[in-house]
Request: fold
Amino acid sequence: MSDRSVKMSDGSMKMSDRSVKMSDGSMKMSDGSVKMSDGSMKMSDGSVKMNDGSMNMSDGSVKMSDGSVKMSDGSVKMNDGSMKMSDGSVKMSDGSMKMSDGSVKMSDGSMKMSDGSVKMSDGSMKMSDGSVKMSDGSMKMSDGSVKMSDGSMKMSDGSVKMSDGSMKMTDGSVKMRYGSVKMTDWSLEMRNMSVKVRDRSVKVSDGSMKMSDGSVKMRQVS
Reply:
């Protein structure tokens, strides 16, 4: 033939550029690749370049026209280095994992929930308002106070508000809900400024002492 092509006995055509046009319409190129009749290109390494620009790799993965790679297990490696898993979760390039429910597992083991709270690796939970729920059930508030699992509240100044409304002060005294103060020596300072001492006598604000037997010891006046 004038173009120096050679028609083979099997019906194929060997072209002058060493390519071979097969009887099924495919074209075997001189570099070993094969252009298929549907327009796809089978490369010498076994991969296949499809008409849409994607590449079927020999390991079963598919390189998409946008540069992402669909793996044989169904996961997709994105251009930014993240990996979209077959269950809908996404492994980010920084090692964190975005779950299908919207939560994110961080590389340090903590879990950022879809509501904005963060579950820490030690079991505590940092809430979106800044408070922290500890693994023992207590709650550390954003102002530094701690709500204990028994309902008491440890304040940032060290005092403790009990579940019955009383307040235990840092010096050990207890301010009762109705206003009296129980001192560390077991005496009780009443709202009217009288003091009930341990032997059940009561020191009144005018200086007299009401005894447990009902008698009253008056304050001596000089």
Notes: The radius of gyration is 42 Å. The chain has a mean pLDDT of 75.
